[in-house]
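hey m, so remember when u said the tokens were messed up on ur end? i reran from scratch. heres the input so u can diff it against urs
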Amino acid sequence: MVVINYQDQLQPGTFEHAVHYLIEHKLDLSVFHPQYRNHDTGRLAYDPAILLNIILFAYSKGITSSREMQWCCETNIIFKALSCDTVPHFTTLAKFVSSHADEIEELFEQVLLVCHEQGLLGNELFAIDGCKMPSDASKEWFGTFKELGEKREKLRRLIRHHLLEHYARDEAETEADLDRDIRRAKTILSLDAAMNKVDRFLKTHSPRMGQGKRSKEVKSNITDNQSAKMTTSKGTIQGYNGVATVDKKHQVIIDAQAFGEGQEHHTLQPVLERVRARFKKLGIADDIYQQGTVVTADTGFANDKFIGNKFEQP
């Protein structure tokens, strides 16, 4: 048996030590507390600080799978130190990320303020760029409203076809006939569920309109209607266009957003607006663009509203 001091595994000067110190001593995590007050009923919840330690360190290592994070907590000494030798289930980690979007954004702003206080932000040059990211949306369930309507009618015809065949054989004569009837019944149920899924979507949603110069309908996706079909260097994916804004001095990310649109020209204004509002909220600058800050982006972000490098006021 070897005695291990977990605190000694977090050596000063390392990223894991910085994450642990910030979470324990600098960041206000009270925004997470209301959902974790279950002292009287239910199972004891994990401390949000432990979950954040695990998730942020995993992200720094390129680990985004909740299952892999759980595995690391079981096998990796640094993860054990950060998690206080606990092993949160992967569903706990996944739910924490998916259900705290607003709280995580507030935490991001706290980190940004710490970076500003430490002199890590130069505020002289901001670089904007994007990358295409796949989502979990199924390519099978996308199309324009006309195409989805045609898919619904095709499913109805298939259901009627199988029902007619089923009615034609009221009684199974052999075991093989019985197995065939059971398979046909399962097929009918599966087709009916798919048709109802499409029908419910068409009744509760409106056509998505693109952000191009000519506004026209773009294909919707039933499983994730905020995502979009977009072309990448590795083929076509169903996903998002992630756009990040980075400060030049130490490459600190000051903003990151995901857009369900392959084209980038319409994303520049909301990105710049978010950065300006965030810097004003944190008290760094009332209008960061009036202090000589240069913003650079590739030609894909070119927009008619931006002429002569002057940001048009909304």
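this time it looks ok to me. Residues 6-100 form one domain. if urs says something different then somethings off w ur setup not the seq
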